[in-house]
Amino acid sequence: MSVSAPAAIKTAPTPERILLRLDWKVIRRLDGLLQGDYRTLFYGQGLDFSDLREYQVEDDIRHIDWNVTARMNSLYVRQYIEDREVTSWFLLDLSPSMGFGPLERPKDMVMIDFVTTLARLLTRNGNRVSAVLYNNRIEGTIPPRGGRNQVLRLTRELLRERKAPVKTTTDLNVLLTAGLNTLKRRSLVFVISDFISQPGWQPSLSLLNQRHELIAVRLWDPREVELPDAGLIVVEDSETGEQLFVDTGDPEFRRRFLESAERRERTLRENCNRAGVDLYSLSTQEDLVGAIVRMAALRKKRRR
Questions:
Q1: Residues 64 and 179 in one domain
Q2: C-beta atoms surrounding 299 within 10 Å
Q3: pLDDT at 165
């Protein structure tokens, strides 16, 4: 049965409805589970440089100042203090592959919920949020501002229907380089993508991590890793448009598909490790509250 135009409009997601739903179903639960300690999730050792001191065993090696260490012939680390009014940037991959996933909750819809939630939590404490939008080219930048209206603006921009880009593969180096060129002051930066990209972006990620407090979040769908047995199907590369008949009933094909996905996963984690960046994963099938609590626990554990 078809849905009438007025009914379709009435049930279409809007920034206001999304924010109201997240306030009730996600943020209220997070307030109880994290007891307001969002610093655990958002901040590392601080954002503003304060002083230098000699290295101690429990220190994060990423904060070693190698220039001072060479001059003093002893390990020295940079100390930071937390800036209470933090500017946060979302570097967002909106390329076609982000539309993959269940019809009711593809990766790009998970991104909208995740980004809206984080933006709401940040602006609630007086911080400013902003974004760089990438869809196989830089689509635009949302300047830093605070408040509820800024969260709604960000959500509205993510909901906007996008023109299909020229059929080409994603190059995350373009997004990361745009971040390097745009962010002038040390900031809290979220890189959110499925990381399905041409290679060569790791040096830019490393440089971004040296200049800012960086959190990388990979969005993924289980069917990108392990194909179901659905018989003969047509698959299409969402980025290039190339189509191919595949037999998902063939155990050998499914095995090779799984091995390929595992290789991509290993390569991604190796690249992030070389860049000194912690990588967090968020599945289309995962509860958002549970995912954010898990990220907070991992960040707290890794900083000990």
A1: no
A2: 18
A3: 61
Q: Compare 1 and 148 and report the one with higher pLDDT.
A: 148
- Do the beta carbons of residue 132 and residue 90 sit within 8 Å? yes
Nearest CA-CA partner of 131 in 143, 123, 146, 118: 143
More confident residue, 78 or 113: 113
Please check whether residue 206 lies inside any domain of the structure. Answer: yes
Residue 252: inside a domain: no
Whether 62 maps to a domain, the answer reads yes
Cα 177 to the center of its chain, rounded Å:
16
Whole-model pTM over 0.70: yes
If we measure between CA atoms, which residue out of 118, 123, 140, 122 comes closest to residue 131? 140
C-alpha angle 104-109-115 in degrees, rounded to nearest 5: 150
Top-confidence residue, 6 or 149: 149
Instruction: Please report which confidence band the pLDDT of residue 236 belongs to, taking 50, 70 and 90 as the band edges.
Output: low
pLDDT at 228 over 70: no
pLDDT range class, residue 7, cuts 50, 70, 90: very low
**Structural domain containing residue 57:** 48-81
Do 77 and 116 belong to one domain? no
Number of domains in the chain: 2
Q: Are residues 163 and 119 in the same domain?
A: yes
Written as one letter, the residue type at 142 is: I
Distance from the Cα of residue 291 to its chain's centroid: 12
Residue 236 main-chain phi, psi, to 5 deg:
-125, 130
Tell which of 81, 98, 132 closes a domain: 81
Phi-psi region of 266 (alpha: psi -120 to 50; beta: other; left: phi over 0): alpha
Same domain as 34, residue 54? no
Span between the terminal Cα atoms of the chain, in Å: 57
